Amino acid sequence: MKSNIIRLIVMFGIGAFVYHAPRIFRHEMKTFSVKDSAQNSELTAIREEIYKAQKSDDLAKLKQSLVLLEKNKTHESLYWQSYVNYQLSLKIFKTNRDESQKLIEKAQGILKNMDAKSSEDLALASMINGFSINFASFYEVASIANETKQLANQAIKLDSTNMRAYLALGINDFYTPEMFGGMKSSEELFKKSIAFAKYSENQSINWGKDLAQDFLNKYYEKKKRPV
């Protein structure tokens, strides 16, 4: 039994990092819709800078975007503050685990302190929570994994077409060992995520489609099925 628990921890620990890494700095992030841009052109510009910084792998510019976001004082600026801290945590994970942990905890704290959390807030929280398993103690892994799933399900209850919520659920299932019930719904969840991506194409938050496709391909490879 103890060996099974240890295996679960190892699988989650490795998986939490690996599943975020492949395209996390190459997500497509489109600009605001016309209506959103008119309401908050400043935030639109900041998001464009975040996109450029990700494309060029420029950590300094990502950090600069945080300074601007903190001055914006809107609900969505808080979302992107959490998102950028999450990206920075991912990027330095291999070279500076202590700082990576501080950044992921900051990302979590921002979302937890937000009022009236949206479906997108909860979906992002689920993704961040999954990565935080890398810093969890032996006894925390199971509860964090369960909370990660709950957050994604809450996001779906608020918006049944939120592709990032299905992506978070799919990733959670993909990295859960089969002996603990994992790998049962990964394919379906990744396909749903890809299918629902069209609903956010013209929205202010639009990332994750490429990552969902990557994981669907990984699922087929793991199952030795043609992509």
Distance linking N and C termini: 35 Å
- The total number of structural domains is 1
Q: How would you state the average pLDDT, rounded?
A: 85
H/I helix tally = 11
- Give the second-level CATH assignment, the architecture: Alpha Horseshoe
Give the H and E element order.
Answer: HHHHHHHHHHH
Structural classification? mainly alpha
CATH superfamily assignment? Tetratricopeptide repeat domain
Low-confidence stretches: 21-39
Radius of gyration in whole Å, from Cα? 17 Å
Relative strand content: under 5%
Main beta-sheet annotation? none
CATH level 3 topology: Serine Threonine Protein Phosphatase 5, Tetratricopeptide repeat
Shape: globular
Describe the structure.
- Helix 5 packs antiparallel against helix 6, helix 7 packs parallel to helix 9 and helix 8 runs antiparallel to helix 9.
- This protein is 68% helix and 0% strand.
- The protein contains 11 helices and no strands.
- It is an all-alpha fold and 227 residues long.
- It is globular.
- The protein has one domain: Tetratricopeptide repeat domain (Serine Threonine Protein Phosphatase 5, Tetratricopeptide repeat, Alpha Horseshoe).
Short recap of the structure:
The chain is an all-alpha fold. It is 68% helix and 0% strand.
Which features would summarize this protein structure in a list?
single chain; 227 residues; mainly alpha; Serine Threonine Protein Phosphatase 5, Tetratricopeptide repeat; 11 helices; 68% helix; 0% strand
SSE topology:
Blueprint: H1 2-18, H2 34-39, H3 41-55, H4 59-72, H5 75-92, H6 97-112, H7 119-132, H8 141-158, H9 163-174, H10 186-196, H11 209-222
